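Reminder to self: C-alpha cells first, then the designed residues, so the page reads top to bottom the way the pipeline ran.
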C-alpha cells in the first residue's frame, strides 16, 4: 500500500513560489551582497557565502558541507566566476539533499489493516492543523480516514481535531480530557479496522518539559496500537514550525532522542524568511521531509520535493 507519492501531482509551483517569497528574497539579497563587485570565487567570497547561508537558518553543519562541495568544484572546474555561483549553489545543495533522500522507503502494511501515522510535535507548531490537512489530502485521494484525539492533556486539542474532522468529513475518536492517550489510540485503531479504514492519523500531546515522560508516553501508545495493528505506527511524523528557525533544530533533536521519528512536516513557511531551515533539518537528521506548510488553506500543505524546493528558494 503506497502512500508517500500519493499527492505528487497536486504540488503547485505557484503556491511554492508565493509561500517561499520572503525566504527567497532574503537569501537572494544576501547572495547578491556576496558577489557584488567580485568576479572570481575565492576564499573571501566563500567565507561571505558561508555567513549568508548560516544567517539564513540553513545551519552550520549543512552550510559547511555545501561550502566544501562548492570549494571542491571550483578547484576541479578552475576559473569559475561569481556569475556561476548561484547556479552552482543550487546544484550542489540539490546533490547534497539527494544523498540523504530516503523518500522511497515505505513501511510494510498487512492486507486489511489501515496505514497508521502517529503525529508528534510541541504545542503551537501546527500539529493538529497538519493532521486535518493530511486527512483532507487522503480523503481527496479516495481513502477512508480516521482521526484519533490522543492529545488528551489539552481540551482545546481535542476540540480543534473535532472541528477539522467535521470540516474534512472524517470520524474522530475521542475520550474525556485527561484520559489515557494509549487508550484513545487503541479505540481509534479498533474502530478504524472494524470499519475498513485505509489511513489513521493519531494526534499526540505536545509536551517536551520532561523527555523521559514523553518517551514513556509515546512508547506506550505505540505498544498498545501494535496489539490492534501489527507494525503500527507505520510512520512517526514530527511536525516542526519553520518560522522558529534554529529552535526547530532543537525540537528535532529532542523528539528524535525521545522516539523513532520516520518523517517530518515543516509548517508556517509562508510567513517567514527562515525557509533555509528546511535544508538544514533535511540534511542533518537524515529523516525525510514529507510535507511543507505554505499557508492557512486546507490545500496549502504540499508534498516536499527537495530539488523543486531548493530551486525555488535559491534561484531568481
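Designed residues (316 positions):
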Amino acid at each position: 500500500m503506497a502512500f508517500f507519492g500519493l499527492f505528487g501531482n497536486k504540488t503547485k509551483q505557484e503556491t511554492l513560489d508565493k509561500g517561499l517569497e520572503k525566504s527567497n528574497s532574503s537569501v537572494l539579497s544576501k547572495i547578491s551582497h556576496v558577489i557584488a563587485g567580485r568576479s572570481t570565487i575565492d576564499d573571501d567570497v566563500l567565507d561571505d557565502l558561508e555567513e549568508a547561508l548560516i544567517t539564513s537558518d540553513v545551519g552550520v553543519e549543512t552550510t559547511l558541507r555545501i561550502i566544501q562541495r562548492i570549494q571542491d568544484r571550483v578547484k576541479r572546474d578552475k576559473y569559475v566566476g561569481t556569475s556561476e555561483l548561484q547556479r552552482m549553489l543550487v546544484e550542489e545543495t540539490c546533490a547534497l539533499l539527494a544523498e540523504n533522500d530516503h523518500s522511497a522507503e515505505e513501511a510494510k502494511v498487512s492486507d486489511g489493516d489501515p496505514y497508521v501515522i502517529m503525529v508528534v510535535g510541541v504545542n503551537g507548531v501546527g500539529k493538529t492543523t497538519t493532521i486535518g490537512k493530511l486527512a483532507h489530502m487522503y480523503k481527496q485521494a479516495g481513502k477512508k480516514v480516521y482521526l484519533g484525539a490522543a492529545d488528551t492533556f489539552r481540551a482545546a486539542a481535542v476540540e480543534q481535531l473535532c472541528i477539522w474532522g467535521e470540516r474534512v468529513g472524517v470520524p474522530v475518536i475521542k475520550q474525556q480530557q485527561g484520559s489515557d492517550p494509549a487508550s484513545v489510540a487503541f479505540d481509534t485503531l479498533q474502530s478504524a479496522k472494524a470499519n475498513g479504514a485505509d489511513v489513521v492519523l493519531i494526534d499526540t500531546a505536545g509536551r517536551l518539559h520532561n523527555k523521559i515522560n514523553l518517551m514513556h508516553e509515546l512508547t506506550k501508545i505505540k505498544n498498545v496500537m501494535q496489539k490492534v495493528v501489527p507494525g503500527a505506527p507505520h510512520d512517526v511524523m514530527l511536525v516542526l514550525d519553520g518560522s522558529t528557525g534554529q529552535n526547530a533544530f532543537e525540537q528535532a533533536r529532542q523528539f528524535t532522542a525521545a522516539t523513532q521519528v520516520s518523517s517530518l512536516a515543516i509548517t508556517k513557511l509562508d510567513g517567514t524568511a527562515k525557509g533555509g531551515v528546511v535544508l538544514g533539518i533535511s540534511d542533518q537528521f537524515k529523516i525525510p521531509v514529507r510535507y511543507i506548510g505554505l499557508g492557512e488553506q486546507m490545500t496549502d500543505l504540499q508534498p516536499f520535493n527537495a530539488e523543486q524546493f531548493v530551486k525555488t528558494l535559491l534561484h531568481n
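The chain has twelve helices and eight strands.
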